[in-house]
Amino acid sequence: MLPLSWTPREMEAWRAFEEGELPRVMLPPRWPFGLTWARTPASEIRWAPLVEMWEKDAEFVVRAELPGVKKEDIEILTTKNTLTIGGTRAAPEDVRDEEYHRCEVCYGPFSRSITLPMDVDPDNVEASYENGVLEVHVPKAKEARATKIEIKSK
Predict the structure, then answer these.
(1) What is the pLDDT of residue 60?
(2) Of 46, 58, 60, 81, which residue is 20 to 30 A from 138 by alpha carbon distance?
C-alpha cells in the first residue's frame, strides 16, 4: 500500500462547517441573490463579512470587507488561536421599507470568527480601517515562530 500525502490545505473545505459558512458554500457559483430573499433593511439578519487571510514570517494578515460600517461600530477580539470580527451595520434612515424594490445588502449585527493555524500574540494585534476595508495584523506567538538555529563547529 502506498503512503498518502496530506496537507492542511485539504481541510479548507471542511472549515465551512466549523465557521458557519455552510449555506454560502452550497449556493451555485455566481449566485446573484446571496442569502437574501425577500427582505428589507428593517428585517435585520446576522451576516458575516467576506475575509481573506495570508501569512507572513512573523504575522497573519486578515482583511475584511465592511462597506458602510462605521469604525466605531466594529469590534475585534483575539484569543491565542482565534480572531473574531463583529459589529453592526446600520440601515439607512432616508428610505422607508415600503419603498424598497430590492435589498441585497445585509444590515444589522455581523460576526466572523477565524481559527488561526497557530497560536498568536493577542496583546499586540493591530488594526486599520480605510474605505470600508478592515485590515488586522495578528503577530504569531514567539514560541510558534520558526527560529533559525546556527550550527556550530566542534
Answers:
(1) 96
(2) 46
Between CA 101 and CA 114 the distance in angstroms is 34
pLDDT for the residue numbered 138: 96
Give the strand pairing for 82-89 and 74-78. Answer: antiparallel
Count of domains for the chain: 1
Name every residue whose Cβ is closer than 8 Å to that of residue 117 and which is 6 or more positions away in sequence: 8, 55, 60
17 lies in some domain: no
C-alpha cell at 128: 486599520
Burial of 92-117, coded b for 16+ CB within 10 Å and e otherwise, reads: eeeeeeeeeeebeebbeebebebebe
The pTM of the full predicted model, rounded to 2 decimals, is: 0.67
Side chain identity at 150, as an amino acid letter?
A: E
63's CB contacts (< 8 A; 6+ apart) are 51, 52, 53, 133, 134, 135, 136
Q: Which pLDDT tens digit goes with each residue over 69-121?
A: 999 999 999 998 999 999 999 988 887 767 777 778 888 999 999 999 999 99
